[in-house]
Amino acid sequence: MAVPKRKKSKMRIRMRKAQKKAAIPSSTTCPACGAPVQTHRACPSCGMYRGRKVLNIDTDKA
Question: What digits encode the pLDDT tens for the residues 17-60?
Fold first, then answer.
């Protein structure tokens, strides 16, 4: 069975762990209303996705 010959230093462990971080989700603007929208999601303000209406949004709430 393989056994490490030397102890890994704290710096080597921390350098490896520094690469594991959450990615910030990218966002674009909605072509219909101009609101910021996450990519591959329907617009929460107007309900459009890829040029067609997919959500019914009540404007009375806002």
Answer: 999 998 888 999 999 999 999 999 999 999 999 999 999 988 66
Q: How far apart, in whole angstroms, are the C-alpha atoms of residue 39 and residue 53? A: 16
For residue 27, which amino acid is it?
S
Which conformational region is residue 33 in: left (phi greater than 0), alpha (psi within -120 to 50 degrees), or beta? alpha
b/e sequence 2-37, b meaning 16+ C-beta within 10 Å: eeeeeeeeeeeeeeeeeeeeeeeeeeeebebeeeeb
